[in-house]
Design a protein that fits this description.
There is one protein chain. The protein is α+β, with helices and mostly antiparallel strands. It is about 25% helix and about 20% strand. β7 and β8 form a beta hairpin. It starts with 9 loop residues before the first strand and ends with a helix.
């Protein structure tokens, strides 16, 4: 069923405790209902007007400048109301359009899940402290492990060397262990806790910390402590995506997320990602005091120049400050932001390496319109 928006966009799901207007021609709800006060203030299809979607994958330089992507899924939630839209192609070769339940590599959105589930739940259980050092928990993993705390790792303030392309082995031989080994061979780039520099390897170290404390593989710990309690039935660490990623109109290579499980290895749906952030913000996964600790800015993290907490970015919009995370990799761009004061959130997944600016535009409109 098509929405009132641009051709090709479909209203794929709509859940609400009350009747709302799904299109401009619909009459307003006639019965007052306190549950209806937080109606969606926009038709989500309005988010799509600035963008051109090119399902064929054949794109000219002029359409690229206008903003193009192979396909996307956008979920907007206000209170208990959600709307999900899909557009474009999940797989051009197979001729399959995007579906609302398609599974994407969520990339660095994984970091919030690792921070909340695999680390801070251990802190809540007094099995780990934010002030513990890497050496305290996993002796011998890093030469400078006695100087780096769990808090430093969660907030990208550990000073770890981040491997460059020339440091890495071929993809066929790459593992999270090989990334940590490269980092261990280099000195710290700054005194831990004194600055911020984004580090995927830091989260791979956190994955080793979790496995050491729990005695379980990271995927099992996340399934038992996060995915199952939050009702994320379509989510898995190192799962199989149902969409093909694209970069420069071509199929992207095997996503590198498989080699950074703790930093970017979760595969999920927009619905499950929204369930996660909703459960987290409402205190269902962590005590609210720990959620407050997690969502307290600790300083700017480069090279993005944004504030970071413990596993979450802060996105300053005209309507307030949202927290959440974004992710990117060959062929994919993802965003998940929550505006807590408005009980409002958005999850965006685009299967195109050029899709980050498009996702940013959707996020701003969804949160502030």
């Amino acid at each position: 069923m098509r929405s009132g928006g641009p051709r090709g966009w479909r209203r794929s799901s709509w859940r609400s405790p009350c009747r709302v207007r799904a299109a401009a021609r619909d009459p307003p709800a006639t019965e007052p209902n306190h549950q209806c006060r937080k109606r969606l203030p926009l038709r989500v299809s309005r988010l799509l007007r600035p963008w051109t979607w090119w399902p064929s994958g054949s794109r000219s330089s002029s359409t690229r400048r206008r903003g193009v992507a192979t396909g996307a899924i956008v979920l907007v939630r206000i209170g208990d109301q959600t709307r999900t839209l899909t557009s474009g192609m999940a797989d051009i070769k197979q001729g399959r359009r995007m579906r609302p339940d398609d599974r994407f590599p969520v990339m660095s959105i994984t970091k919030t899940m690792v921070a909340a589930a695999a680390v801070l739940q251990l802190v809540a259980a007094i099995r780990l402290s934010l002030n513990d050092t890497v050496k305290d928990v996993v002796p011998g993993l890093l030469p400078q492990g006695h100087r780096i705390t769990i808090r430093d790792l969660l907030s990208h303030r550990a000073g770890l060397y981040d491997p460059r392309d020339e440091d890495l082995p071929a993809l066929s031989r790459m593992t999270d262990d090989s990334l940590i080994d490269v980092t261990a061979d280099h000195p710290l780039e700054f005194q831990p806790g004194t600055s911020g520099s984004y580090s995927n390897v830091g989260y791979e170290v956190l994955g080793k910390v979790v496995e050491q404390v729990t005695g379980d593989p990271l995927g099992d710990a996340m399934e038992h402590n996060i995915f199952d309690p939050a009702g994320m039935s379509d989510t898995q660490l190192l799962g199989s995506p149902s969409v093909q990623g694209y970069f420069d109109s071509k199929g992207a290579p095997d996503p590198y997320f498989r080699f950074v499980p703790a930093a970017g290895g979760v595969v999920s749906t927009v619905g499950d990602v929204d369930r996660f952030y909703t459960a987290l913000s409402r205190g269902d996964l962590l005590d609210k005091d720990l959620v407050a600790t997690m969502t307290t800015p600790l300083g700017i993290v480069e090279p993005w120049g944004m504030d970071y907490g413990l596993g979450v970015w802060f996105d300053r919009e005209s309507c307030g400050t949202a927290w959440g995370h974004s992710g990117a990799g060959p062929g994919f761009a993802t965003k998940a932001w929550t505006l807590p004061d408005a009980d409002r959130s958005v999850v965006i997944m685009v299967n195109d390496g050029d899709g980050h600016s498009i996702a940013d535009g959707f996020a701003t409109a969804a949160l502030c319109d």
